[in-house]
Amino acid sequence: MLADKIVGIVDDRMILLSEIEAQYLQNTYQVTAPIPPDYKCELLNAMLTEKLMVAQAILDSVEVTDDQVENELDRRVRAFANVAGSVEKLEEYYGKSILEMKDEFRPQVKENLLADGEKAKIAGDLKVTPSEVMAYFNKIPKDSLPYYNAATELGLLVIYPKVSEAVRAYSKEKIGELLTRIKNGEDFATLASSYSEDPGSADRGGELGFVNRGELDPAFEAAAFGLKKPNEVSDIVESSFGFHIIQLIERRGDRINVRHILIIPKTTSYDINNAGKLMDSIYYLIQSGKYTFTEAVNKFSEDEYSKGNGGMMVNPSTGANQFDISELGNYDQSLVPATDTLQVGAISKPMLFRNERGETGFRIIYMKSKVKPHQANLKDDYNRIQDMALGQKQVDTINKWLLDRISKSYVFVAPEFHDCKVIKKWINNSEQ
Fold first, then answer.
1. How does pLDDT run across 46-61, given as a tens digit for each residue?
2. Any idea what DSSP says for residue 168?
3. Are 246 and 236 in contact (CB under 8 A)?
4. CA 227 to chain CA centroid, nearest Å
């Protein structure tokens, strides 16, 4: 094993070769694309930049809370576990428990968030004017303009059938009887296998496997994390899925493994028929002009993802309202044929559909815009080009700040990195 050494210093903050190697290993584990030959140069540049940002963030009193750090740690663990295939495989790969990994990464995550806070302070309030957007667009060589696939912006108005109070009462009574049987000594896992209506866990005796905070329905999670001892059983819990009884199997820090029994109050054909009649009425109110689509969404829609956005769907990949047609199919394949003949500005007739939970509902689809495949232009792609222009302005502003701040700082870069093109701005001010 090579001896560790200092490869970079900014003011009084050091970067070790082992940090470069660890980051290199972590990133190569996460990506499948070929790693560029100068990737370690890029890593050192990023670390030098972050050290400088952190130093300034502290001077500027940028605040990062413990909750922000923990939330970011949880997000990263989930992302790494997805790449590994499971939390257990991730622990096996690193040879450490999740708690040990969090303890190791916590200081680095705090520095990442401090640096992000300083970047936001430097460039977060920047805006671009229409003339700047046009100037940015005109500088792009015509043969380098991006080509965009067919795309659309869609709105949804969704209504779900309401379960009758009689059915809800029956479901609660049914799970209450199971809770009594458990309290009387019957085996939880056996009852879960026989009676639970969660298809994903019933055949495993109701066991969910280890989960982190933030991954479950809020009501379910509060009850599950409230259990203190293995085999402790909750009272009846109502979540967005139905009624549950939960039993704690094991707790590992902020991760728990529980089993549960789920009883789902089910809608009847009568409930579905009533929801369909309501949706027909809403459709005619929009068509007659008594409500705009947005007004009808605000008053009637029950779609938790789009209602706060005036009914407009948000592309989870970009955060924007626009979907490439191919992306739309990945998001919800049933929307593609449903919108194929829909005209811009029009709404569809009410359609029966199933959401990602398998729940039946009715929806009306509104087509706000639709563009054919094309090379980028200001008319069809102004928002995209505006975002690109703003991103470039932010990069330019941060780079200008960096050059000024580097000139006022003590910088050292190890000789083996002096040939790195991306490091030149640091070497010009380093000890040589």
1. 999 999 999 999 999 9
2. H
3. no
4. 28
| Distance, CA of 257 to CA of 1 (rounded, Å) | 39
Alpha-helix runs per DSSP H in 142-252: 165-183, 188-195, 218-226
Q: What was the pLDDT predicted at 319?
A: 80
pLDDT value for 193:
95
Contacts of 161 (CB under 8 A, 6+ apart): 267, 271, 272, 274, 275, 360, 361
Domains of the chain: 6-128+384-427 (1.10.4030.10), 150-162+268-372 (3.10.50.40), 165-263 (3.10.50.40)
* 35: confidence class by pLDDT, cuts 50, 70, 90: confident
In 32-129, which residue ranges form alpha helices assigned H by DSSP?
39-59, 66-84, 87-94, 98-123
Region at 311 (left for phi over 0; alpha for psi -120 to 50; beta for the rest): left
Residue 16 to residue 9: CA distance in whole angstroms: 9
Distance CA 351, CA 283 (A): 11
* Structural tokens at position 57: 């963030």
**Whole-structure pTM over 0.90, yes or no?**
no
Structure tokens at 194: 């026989």
DSSP state of 312: B
Give tens-digit pLDDT for 206-247: 999 888 877 888 999 999 999 999 999 999 999 988 999 999
- Round the CA-based radius of gyration of the chain to a whole number and report it: 28
